[in-house]
Amino acid sequence: xxxxxxxxxxxxxxxxxxxxxxxxxxxxxxxxxxxxxxxxxxxxxxxxxxxxxxxxxxxxxxxxxxxxxxxxxxxxxxxxxxxxxxxxxxxxxxxxxxxxxxxxxxxxxxxxxxxxxxxxxxxxxxxxxxxxxxxxxxxxxxxxxxxxxxxxxxxxxxxxxxxxxxxxxxxxxxxxxxxxxxxxxxxxxxxxxxxxxxxxxxxxxxxxxxxxxxxxxxxxxxxxxxxxxxxxxxxxxxxxxxxxxxxxxxxxxxxxxxxxxxxxxxxxxxxxxxxxxxxxxxxxxxxxxxxxxxxxxxxxxxxxxxxxxxxxxxxxxxxxxxxxxxx
Length: 327
Hints:
β1 (about 5-10), α1 (about 15-25) and β2 form a beta-alpha-beta unit. It is built from 10 helices and 13 strands. It has 2 domains: about 5-175 and about 225-250, Rossmann fold (3-Layer(aba) Sandwich), CATH 3.40.50.720; about 190-220 and about 255-325, UDP-galactose 4-epimerase, domain 1 (Alpha-Beta Complex). It has a 7-stranded parallel beta sheet, sandwiched between helices. By secondary structure, it is an alpha/beta fold.
C-alpha cells in the first residue's frame, strides 16, 4: 500500500528536500504551507494546501481529504536574532501553531508526527559531541519554542497516544545535487551561502563573527549536515513511526566539526575564488563548538550521513547559487 505524508512547511528549504526524498521512495506527498517564507515553485512532488497551520478548518479538511500516514512538521520561523527581538511571533507561530496542528490531528484521528527540531534546544554545550541525553537549556526564544514543542509531543504521547519523532538538526547545509531545489532565505543568514556570495561578489564580504574562540584556529566550529542526509533521516523516521509508533528523539549531525576559517578555505577550493572576508565580534551566547553524536540515529534508524563532506556540501550549494544567483 502506498503511504502518504503531509508536509507542513514543505515549500521551505529542508521541507522541500524531504518532499523529494519521500516522493522518490514511493510515498504520496501533500504540502501544507502558507508561503510566507516558502516558495511556490519548490512544491514539485504533490498538491499544495495553501494555508496556515493555525487555520484549523483548512488543516482538518486537508487531513480528512488525504488521510496521511504521517504528518511531517517543518512549518516554523527559524531566525535566532529575530526570535530575540520579536519573541511573540516565535511562540505564536512555532509553539502555538504546533498546538493548533496537534489539535487538528486529534480531531480527525491522525496520530503520527515527524517533527523538525533543533540543536538550539541544547544551548551552550557542556560537552561535545552532544548526545540526546545532554541537558536542554536554550539561550534564545527560537530554541525555547522548539523545546516546548518536544515536551508537548511527550505529553500528547502519554495522554492521547500520539506517536512522534523529534529530529534535532545541527547545521543544515547544501542543496539538492540535481539542482531542482535549494537554499533560499530572505534575508540569508546561513554561513555557506554567504561565504559563496563573498567569493562571487567583492561587494558582498563575509563577516567572521569572532576569531578569539578557544578552538584551534580561533573561529567557531559547527557540524554541517547535508540537507539530503537530513531528508533520508526523515524518511527512515517516518517508516519507524508507521512500523512501531512511540516517542523518539534523535540528533542529526556528522560528528565532525568544521571551523569558519576551514569553511572559507573549502569555498576557496570549490569556487576557485577567494571570498572577501571581514572580522567582527562574537555574537552574544555563541558557543565555541557544536558537534553532534549521531550514534543513536545510527543504532535505531540505521542512518548515517553519506553526503556531508564539506567540499561536497559547498559544491552543491555553489551549483544552486549559479543557477539562482542572489539579487
